[in-house]
Design a protein that fits this description.
2 domains
Protein backbone atom coordinates (compact mmCIF):
# COMPACT_ATOMS: atom_id res chain seq x y z
CA UNK A 1 0.00 0.00 0.00
CA UNK A 2 1.21 3.56 -0.71
CA UNK A 3 1.22 6.28 2.00
CA UNK A 4 -2.30 7.36 0.97
CA UNK A 5 -3.66 3.89 1.60
CA UNK A 6 -4.02 3.02 -2.11
CA UNK A 7 -2.82 -0.30 -3.57
CA UNK A 8 0.63 0.15 -5.09
CA UNK A 9 1.16 -0.05 -8.85
CA UNK A 10 4.53 -1.31 -10.08
CA UNK A 11 5.77 0.42 -13.22
CA UNK A 12 8.70 -0.87 -15.28
CA UNK A 13 11.20 1.82 -16.25
CA UNK A 14 13.82 1.55 -19.03
CA UNK A 15 15.69 4.79 -19.77
CA UNK A 16 15.11 7.00 -21.64
CA UNK A 17 11.39 6.12 -21.13
CA UNK A 18 10.07 6.66 -17.62
CA UNK A 19 6.64 5.48 -16.40
CA UNK A 20 4.61 6.70 -13.43
CA UNK A 21 1.73 5.00 -11.60
CA UNK A 22 -1.71 6.57 -12.23
CA UNK A 23 -4.07 5.54 -9.45
CA UNK A 24 -7.18 6.95 -11.18
CA UNK A 25 -6.82 4.59 -14.17
CA UNK A 26 -4.84 1.92 -12.26
CA UNK A 27 -2.16 1.76 -14.94
CA UNK A 28 1.31 3.05 -15.72
CA UNK A 29 1.59 6.34 -17.56
CA UNK A 30 4.51 7.75 -19.58
CA UNK A 31 5.87 11.21 -18.88
CA UNK A 32 4.20 12.76 -22.00
CA UNK A 33 0.87 11.15 -21.07
CA UNK A 34 1.18 12.45 -17.54
CA UNK A 35 1.83 15.96 -18.82
CA UNK A 36 -1.20 15.83 -21.14
CA UNK A 37 -3.42 14.71 -18.25
CA UNK A 38 -2.19 17.57 -16.08
CA UNK A 39 -2.96 20.05 -18.86
CA UNK A 40 -6.50 18.64 -19.25
CA UNK A 41 -7.09 18.96 -15.50
CA UNK A 42 -5.79 22.54 -15.55
CA UNK A 43 -8.09 23.42 -18.47
CA UNK A 44 -11.12 21.92 -16.73
CA UNK A 45 -10.36 23.83 -13.53
CA UNK A 46 -9.93 27.09 -15.45
CA UNK A 47 -13.21 26.52 -17.32
CA UNK A 48 -15.07 25.85 -14.06
CA UNK A 49 -13.59 28.98 -12.54
CA UNK A 50 -14.77 31.04 -15.51
CA UNK A 51 -18.30 29.65 -15.18
CA UNK A 52 -18.37 30.48 -11.48
CA UNK A 53 -17.14 34.01 -12.09
CA UNK A 54 -19.78 34.59 -14.76
CA UNK A 55 -22.38 33.28 -12.30
CA UNK A 56 -21.19 35.79 -9.70
CA UNK A 57 -19.25 33.33 -7.55
CA UNK A 58 -15.58 33.56 -6.70
CA UNK A 59 -14.34 29.93 -6.55
CA UNK A 60 -11.66 30.98 -4.09
CA UNK A 61 -14.28 32.37 -1.71
CA UNK A 62 -17.38 30.20 -2.19
CA UNK A 63 -21.02 31.26 -2.13
CA UNK A 64 -21.93 34.92 -2.81
CA UNK A 65 -22.04 37.12 0.27
CA UNK A 66 -25.41 38.83 0.92
CA UNK A 67 -25.42 42.52 0.13
CA UNK A 68 -27.72 45.49 0.66
CA UNK A 69 -30.53 46.20 -1.80
CA UNK A 70 -32.21 49.58 -2.03
CA UNK A 71 -35.92 49.74 -1.13
CA UNK A 72 -36.30 53.36 -2.25
CA UNK A 73 -34.90 54.62 -5.54
CA UNK A 74 -35.18 58.32 -4.73
CA UNK A 75 -37.46 58.92 -7.73
CA UNK A 76 -40.83 57.27 -7.14
CA UNK A 77 -42.67 54.70 -4.99
CA UNK A 78 -41.56 51.65 -6.95
CA UNK A 79 -41.39 48.65 -4.60
CA UNK A 80 -44.09 49.95 -2.24
CA UNK A 81 -47.85 49.34 -2.01
CA UNK A 82 -50.26 51.89 -0.53
CA UNK A 83 -52.40 49.91 1.92
CA UNK A 84 -54.91 52.36 3.42
CA UNK A 85 -53.65 55.92 3.04
CA UNK A 86 -54.54 58.62 0.50
CA UNK A 87 -53.00 58.97 -2.94
CA UNK A 88 -51.07 62.04 -1.80
CA UNK A 89 -49.96 60.72 1.60
CA UNK A 90 -46.66 59.53 0.14
CA UNK A 91 -44.55 61.49 -2.33
CA UNK A 92 -40.96 62.01 -3.42
CA UNK A 93 -39.33 65.42 -3.02
CA UNK A 94 -35.70 66.11 -3.92
CA UNK A 95 -34.81 62.43 -3.60
CA UNK A 96 -36.51 62.08 -0.20
CA UNK A 97 -39.59 59.98 0.59
CA UNK A 98 -42.13 62.32 2.23
CA UNK A 99 -45.09 61.16 4.31
CA UNK A 100 -47.73 63.82 5.06
CA UNK A 101 -48.93 61.90 8.12
CA UNK A 102 -52.56 62.02 7.00
CA UNK A 103 -54.58 59.92 7.16
CA UNK A 104 -53.34 57.36 9.67
CA UNK A 105 -52.31 54.19 7.87
CA UNK A 106 -49.38 52.40 6.25
CA UNK A 107 -47.56 51.71 3.01
CA UNK A 108 -46.01 48.24 2.75
CA UNK A 109 -43.12 46.63 0.91
CA UNK A 110 -43.94 44.57 -2.19
CA UNK A 111 -42.54 41.39 -0.65
CA UNK A 112 -42.30 39.78 2.75
CA UNK A 113 -39.07 39.44 4.69
CA UNK A 114 -37.99 36.99 7.35
CA UNK A 115 -34.38 37.41 8.43
CA UNK A 116 -32.70 40.65 7.43
CA UNK A 117 -30.76 43.79 8.26
CA UNK A 118 -32.71 47.00 7.59
CA UNK A 119 -31.04 50.40 7.30
CA UNK A 120 -33.38 53.40 7.32
CA UNK A 121 -32.86 57.12 7.88
CA UNK A 122 -35.72 59.35 9.04
CA UNK A 123 -36.40 62.93 10.09
CA UNK A 124 -39.43 64.55 11.71
CA UNK A 125 -40.31 68.10 10.68
CA UNK A 126 -43.08 68.80 13.21
CA UNK A 127 -42.89 68.97 17.04
CA UNK A 128 -44.02 65.73 18.63
CA UNK A 129 -44.28 63.84 15.34
CA UNK A 130 -45.23 60.16 15.52
CA UNK A 131 -44.30 57.40 13.07
CA UNK A 132 -42.46 54.12 12.83
CA UNK A 133 -41.74 51.06 10.75
CA UNK A 134 -43.55 47.77 11.32
CA UNK A 135 -41.52 44.62 10.68
CA UNK A 136 -42.88 41.07 10.29
CA UNK A 137 -46.31 42.59 9.59
CA UNK A 138 -49.34 41.05 7.91
CA UNK A 139 -50.12 44.51 6.43
CA UNK A 140 -53.83 44.04 7.22
CA UNK A 141 -54.93 47.12 9.18
CA UNK A 142 -57.26 46.89 12.16
CA UNK A 143 -60.40 48.90 11.24
CA UNK A 144 -60.30 50.66 14.63
CA UNK A 145 -56.66 51.78 14.66
CA UNK A 146 -55.99 51.69 10.90
CA UNK A 147 -52.66 50.02 11.72
CA UNK A 148 -51.53 46.42 11.04
CA UNK A 149 -49.91 43.90 13.34
CA UNK A 150 -46.19 43.20 13.60
CA UNK A 151 -43.34 44.54 15.69
CA UNK A 152 -43.18 48.33 15.67
CA UNK A 153 -39.85 50.11 15.63
CA UNK A 154 -41.04 53.48 16.86
CA UNK A 155 -39.95 56.86 15.53
CA UNK A 156 -41.07 59.75 17.75
CA UNK A 157 -39.98 63.36 17.71
CA UNK A 158 -38.41 64.42 21.02
CA UNK A 159 -41.17 66.89 21.94
CA UNK A 160 -43.77 64.12 21.89
CA UNK A 161 -43.43 63.58 25.64
CA UNK A 162 -43.99 67.29 26.34
CA UNK A 163 -47.04 67.49 24.09
CA UNK A 164 -48.68 64.33 25.43
CA UNK A 165 -48.75 64.79 29.19
CA UNK A 166 -51.07 62.48 31.10
CA UNK A 167 -52.75 63.80 34.20
CA UNK A 168 -50.21 66.60 34.18
CA UNK A 169 -47.26 64.20 34.13
CA UNK A 170 -44.71 63.96 31.36
CA UNK A 171 -44.33 60.43 29.94
CA UNK A 172 -40.94 58.73 30.31
CA UNK A 173 -38.28 60.06 27.94
CA UNK A 174 -37.70 56.46 26.85
CA UNK A 175 -40.81 56.80 24.67
CA UNK A 176 -38.93 58.86 22.11
CA UNK A 177 -35.64 57.01 21.70
CA UNK A 178 -36.61 53.92 19.73
CA UNK A 179 -39.04 51.69 21.59
CA UNK A 180 -39.83 48.19 20.29
CA UNK A 181 -43.14 46.42 20.90
CA UNK A 182 -45.58 43.93 19.44
CA UNK A 183 -48.78 45.27 17.87
CA UNK A 184 -52.08 43.64 16.97
CA UNK A 185 -51.62 40.52 19.07
CA UNK A 186 -47.94 39.92 18.24
CA UNK A 187 -46.13 38.94 21.43
CA UNK A 188 -42.48 39.70 22.23
CA UNK A 189 -40.10 39.51 25.19
CA UNK A 190 -38.50 42.94 25.82
CA UNK A 191 -34.78 43.22 26.47
CA UNK A 192 -35.30 46.36 28.57
CA UNK A 193 -38.89 46.17 29.82
CA UNK A 194 -41.21 49.12 30.16
CA UNK A 195 -44.33 47.07 30.61
CA UNK A 196 -44.67 44.95 27.49
CA UNK A 197 -42.48 47.36 25.52
CA UNK A 198 -38.72 47.47 25.30
CA UNK A 199 -37.05 50.84 25.86
CA UNK A 200 -33.63 51.96 24.68
CA UNK A 201 -30.90 51.91 27.32
CA UNK A 202 -29.44 55.18 26.02
CA UNK A 203 -31.16 58.32 24.67
CA UNK A 204 -29.66 58.76 21.18
CA UNK A 205 -32.50 60.04 18.96
CA UNK A 206 -32.30 63.54 17.47
CA UNK A 207 -35.08 66.13 17.27
CA UNK A 208 -36.98 67.60 14.33
CA UNK A 209 -34.92 68.86 11.44
CA UNK A 210 -32.16 66.32 12.08
CA UNK A 211 -31.69 62.96 10.40
CA UNK A 212 -31.76 59.78 12.51
CA UNK A 213 -30.36 56.42 11.47
CA UNK A 214 -31.86 53.10 12.49
CA UNK A 215 -30.19 49.75 11.80
CA UNK A 216 -32.59 46.90 12.54
CA UNK A 217 -31.26 43.33 12.73
CA UNK A 218 -34.12 40.81 12.64
CA UNK A 219 -33.38 37.08 12.89
CA UNK A 220 -35.63 34.21 14.01
CA UNK A 221 -37.89 36.26 16.26
CA UNK A 222 -35.08 38.39 17.68
CA UNK A 223 -34.68 42.10 16.87
CA UNK A 224 -31.76 44.35 17.78
CA UNK A 225 -31.99 48.09 17.15
CA UNK A 226 -29.11 50.50 16.63
CA UNK A 227 -29.98 54.20 17.02
CA UNK A 228 -27.51 56.57 15.40
CA UNK A 229 -24.61 54.19 15.51
CA UNK A 230 -25.08 52.20 18.71
CA UNK A 231 -27.19 49.14 19.60
CA UNK A 232 -29.45 50.20 22.44
CA UNK A 233 -32.62 48.08 22.29
CA UNK A 234 -33.98 44.66 21.45
CA UNK A 235 -36.74 42.08 21.76
CA UNK A 236 -36.82 38.31 21.46
CA UNK A 237 -39.23 35.39 20.97
CA UNK A 238 -41.57 37.28 18.67
CA UNK A 239 -44.70 35.25 17.96
CA UNK A 240 -44.47 36.45 14.33
CA UNK A 241 -41.19 36.08 12.45
CA UNK A 242 -41.99 36.87 8.84
CA UNK A 243 -43.99 39.53 7.01
CA UNK A 244 -44.03 42.88 5.26
CA UNK A 245 -42.25 46.08 6.16
CA UNK A 246 -44.76 48.87 6.72
CA UNK A 247 -43.97 52.58 6.90
CA UNK A 248 -46.40 54.40 9.19
CA UNK A 249 -48.36 57.58 8.62
CA UNK A 250 -49.63 58.86 11.97
CA UNK A 251 -50.56 62.50 12.03
CA UNK A 252 -47.36 64.41 11.28
CA UNK A 253 -45.04 64.87 8.32
CA UNK A 254 -41.95 62.70 8.35
CA UNK A 255 -39.17 62.19 5.78
CA UNK A 256 -37.32 58.97 4.89
CA UNK A 257 -34.21 58.29 2.85
CA UNK A 258 -31.55 55.64 2.21
CA UNK A 259 -33.83 52.66 2.91
CA UNK A 260 -31.82 49.49 2.31
CA UNK A 261 -32.19 45.85 3.24
CA UNK A 262 -29.86 42.86 3.38
CA UNK A 263 -31.74 39.57 3.28
CA UNK A 264 -30.30 36.74 5.36
CA UNK A 265 -30.90 32.96 5.07
CA UNK A 266 -34.36 31.77 6.21
CA UNK A 267 -34.98 30.27 9.61
CA UNK A 268 -37.77 28.43 11.37
CA UNK A 269 -40.78 29.65 9.38
CA UNK A 270 -42.24 27.71 6.50
CA UNK A 271 -43.74 28.86 3.18
CA UNK A 272 -46.67 31.21 3.79
CA UNK A 273 -46.14 31.11 7.56
CA UNK A 274 -46.12 34.33 9.57
Amino acid sequence: MNPQGKRSISCWTAPPRVYFPDYATKRCMSLPERGQKAMRQFAMTAALGAVLLVAGMDPAIGEPVPGFQSLFNGKDLTGWVNVNTADDTWSVRDGVLVCSGRPIGVMRSEKQYENFVLHIEWMHVEPGGNSGVFVWSNAQPDPRTRLPNGVEVQMLELDWVNLNKRNGETPPIAYVHGELFGVGGVQTIPDNPRGSRSKSIENRAKGRGEWNTYDVVAVDGVIKLSVNGRFVNGISRSSQKKGYLCLESEGAEIHFRNIQIMELPPGVTGPGEY
